[in-house]
Design goal:
- By secondary structure, this protein is an alpha/beta fold.
- It folds into 2 domains: 2-179 and 361-377, Nucleotidyltransferase, domain 5; 190-353, ATPase, nucleotide binding domain (Nucleotidyltransferase, domain 5, 2-Layer Sandwich), CATH 3.30.420.
- The protein has helices at residues 2-17, 58-67, 80-88, 99-107, 116-119, 134-137, 160-164, 179-186, 239-245, 251-255, 296-320, 339-349, 361-377, and strands at residues 25-26, 29-30, 35-38, 44-49, 95-98, 113-115, 147-149, 154-157, 172-174, 177-178, 194-199, 203-209, 221-225, 228-235, 328-332, 352-353.
């Protein structure tokens, strides 16, 4: 499988650059909701459904909606549970794992294990700290699901592939997390009220909260990460809109013509097709891109202003749902490099904007391990 081939390449390259004997712990982050089926020999049966693959069976989705408690992150065609139930029905399937779970197993971690963050969309109950009874009723055999640990917690001593390559047997495998949670931690955000906006193909907001925030209507749910809850939502607007309407090759040229100190106030809501998830929840919500200024620079500025307002409204909604007031804001993704956009966003959010310590999700996964090691040493 391509996942394991790339991981092996990375480990072998790392082994040639650093002494793996210094490794104290290992964790894996992976895309939330990506699941695969394995046989009794831990080999993939061929079935993989990615985070953005809707469940192919609409009846499974309906059954989950019928039995899931209010606020469950496992509801919907894009839930990890819906994909897991579909794959579990294949012939020869002995278990269903998340992407990060399988990679950790291949690295040498014994047994089928997962973390709370990846397991959330598969129906794991954070309060019970177990797979709940209702997912059996919905069609999922819990015996095929992994044992779940708190993100960052040590699971087992080093063994297998990594130990054979020089990682000391005294180090531990740790429960990992999703790439979204890892990316948040990588930035250095660590306190209640710290927020991170990812300006990628879509606009994704994450806010550290002292209490979990849940609103299935707006696709808002919370992960437990360390000492806080990480609540967030994702808009359909973002870099995919800019790429389609402006093109990657003209962004620098048009940015020079943007004046953040003179807002146009055209009230754009930049979408490519009808439908929005957050901060508006409406599958038929219409894009607003008119009246379009004749000047391309002003058209580009109006798009950026519209996206900035989406971000502002998103954090406002998270606060209305019970989240804390913004304390600081960090940004990751390609849009973070646009100086004009950064200036108008800082003005709109009204909080201190801080540089991201790192934009690599792996740094966030490593910080989970280090935090747990520090707590053990204290």
């Amino acid at each position: 499988m391509a996942w394991w081939a790339r991981v092996r390449e990375a480990v072998e390259a790392l082994k040639d650059q650093v002494d793996l004997a210094s490794v104290r712990g290992v964790a894996v982050d992976g895309t939330s909701g990506t699941v695969l089926a394995i046989d009794k020999y831990q080999a993939p049966t061929g079935g993989v459904l990615m985070y953005n693959d809707p469940c192919p069976d609409a009846d499974i989705v309906k059954r989950i909606s019928k039995h899931a408690p209010q606020g469950s992150a496992a509801v919907g065609a894009n839930s990890g549970l819906a994909r897991a139930i579909f794959l579990a029905r294949e012939v020869g399937v002995d278990g269903v794992l998340h992407q990060a779970d399988w990679i950790l197993m291949m690295l040498g971690c014994p047994g089928r294990v997962s973390d709370e963050n990846n397991a959330l969309k598969s129906g794991y109950d954070l309060l019970l700290q177990d797979w709940p009874d209702w997912i059996e009723t919905a069609g999922m055999d819990r015996a095929k699901l992994p044992e779940v640990f708190r993100a960052g917690k040590p699971i087992a001593k080093m063994d297998g592939y990594l130990k054979d390559r020089g990682v000391p047997g005294s180090s531990f495998f740790h429960a990992g997390t999703t790439d979204g949670c890892a990316s948040f931690l990588a930035t250095g955000a660590s306190d209640i009220g710290d927020a991170v906006t990812a300006l990628g193909s879509t606009i994704v907001l994450k806010l550290a909260s002292s209490e979990p925030i849940s609103s299935p209507q707006f696709g808002v749910y919370s992960h437990r990460v360390g000492k806080f809850w990480l609540a967030g939502g994702a808009s359909n607007s973002g870099g995919n809109v800019l790429k389609a309407l402006i093109g990657d090759d003209r962004l620098e040229e048009l940015t020079a013509r943007v004046d953040p100190r003179r807002p146009l106030g055209l009230d754009f809501y930049p979408l490519l097709t009808p439908g929005e998830r957050f901060p508006v929840s409406d599958p038929s919500f219409q894009p607003r891109l008119a009246p379009a200024p004749a000047d391309e620079g002003k058209f580009f500025q109006a798009i950026l202003e519209g996206m900035t307002d989406i971000e502002r409204r998103g954090y406002q909604l998270l606060q209305e749902l019970g989240g804390p007031a913004l304390k600081s804001l960090r940004t990751v993704g390609g849009g973070a490099r646009n100086s004009a956009w950064s200036e108008m966003r800082a003005e709109a959010m009204g909080v201190e904007t801080l540089p991201a310590r790192s934009v690599e999700a792996a740094v966030g996964a490593a910080s989970l391990v280090l935090d747990n090691l520090d707590n053990q040493d204290a």
